[in-house]
Amino acid sequence: MKKIVIFGSTGMTGLCAVEAAVKKGFQVRAFLRDPQKLTDNLKDKVEIFKGDVLEPDSVTNAVEGTDGVVVVLGTRSCLDPTSDLSEGLKNILEAMRAKNVKTISTCLSAFLFYEPDKVPPKFQHLTNDHRRMYEALKETSMNWVAVFPPHISEEPSCETIIQINPQKSPGRAISKWNLGEFLVNALTEPKYYGNVVSLCDAPKQ
Questions:
Q1: pTM of the full structure
Q2: Tens of pLDDT along 2-55?
Q3: DSSP 29-92
Q4: What per-residue confidence (pLDDT) applies to 97?
Q5: CATH superfamily placement of domain 3-201
Q6: How far apart are CA 29 and CA 61, in angstroms?
Q7: I need a labelling partner for 116 at 20 to 30 A (CA). Which of 4, 128, 134, 184 fits?
C-alpha cells in the first residue's frame, strides 16, 4: 500500500490521521471541503483534494489511484438528525468498487455497542447514522475495519489497549492522536479486516 485517501481530513481526528499517514510514509490525498482548515505543517506534505462526500463524482475522482481509504467523517459537534455520514460512506464504497480499491478503515462510535434505547438521547440521531454506516460496511466484500472509539480526547499519544470484536468499549477515552494513528495502521493489518475494533488509552501508571 503506497497511496491512501483520507475523508474528513480536517476534523480533530482526521488531522491526526493525516499526520500519522505522512509519518508512516504514505502518499496522502486529503479530501476536504475547505483547504484552509488543513494545518500549515501538512499542506506541503499531502495532495489536497477539495470535494464533498455527498457528490459522487468528486468522491470517485478522489479514490482513483489509491490503495486504501480512511474515513473520519464528522458533524462538527452538530447532533441534529442526519444521513450525511452514511450517504457519504455509500458514495465512498461505490467509488471503491468502481476503482477496484479494496481496503477501508472507518471511524464510528462506541455507542454502537449499546442497545438503541440505551444510547443517551442527545446522541441518538448521530448514532443512528453511524449504525447505517456500519451496516453499509458489512454489506461489502471489502477489507473493512469498523472502529468504535469511546470519547475522543485531546490528550497526547500514549500506550493503547486494542480489542477485536469486544462486547463493549475497553475504556472511557482515546487520544485523538492514538485513534488517528490506528485508523491508518489498520489498513495494513489483515487481522483487523472484517472486524469491529475498539481501543482506549491505557491507564496511567
A1: 0.96
A2: 999 999 999 999 999 999 999 999 999 999 988 888 989 999 999 999 999 999
A3: EEEES-GGGS-HHHHTTSEEEE--TT-HHHHHHHHTT-SEEEE----TT--S---HHHHHHHHH
A4: 98
A5: NAD(P)-binding Rossmann-like Domain (3.40.50.720)
A6: 11
A7: 184
Contacts of 18 by beta carbon, 8 Å cutoff, 6+ apart = 6, 9, 28, 30, 38, 42, 46, 180
Cell of 8: 474528513
What cell was used for 15? 488531522
- Are 145 and 104 in contact, with CB atoms under 8 Å apart? yes
Q: At 176, which amino acid appears?
A: K
Residues 155-201: pLDDT tens digits? 999 999 999 999 999 999 999 999 999 999 999 999 999 999 999 99
Sorted by sequence, the CB contacts under 8 Å of residue 166 that are 6+ apart come out as 113, 196, 198
Element (H or E) spanning 189, and its range? none
Please name the residue that has the C-alpha cell 438528525. 81
In DSSP terms, which residues pair with 201 in a beta bridge? 160
3-state class of 179 per DSSP? helix
**What are the C-alpha distances in Å from 54 to residues 47, 91, 113, 190, 196?**
20, 7, 27, 29, 25
User: What is the residue type of 56?
Assistant: P
The domain spans of the chain are 3-201
CA distances, 58 to each of 28, 109, 135 (Å): 16, 26, 23
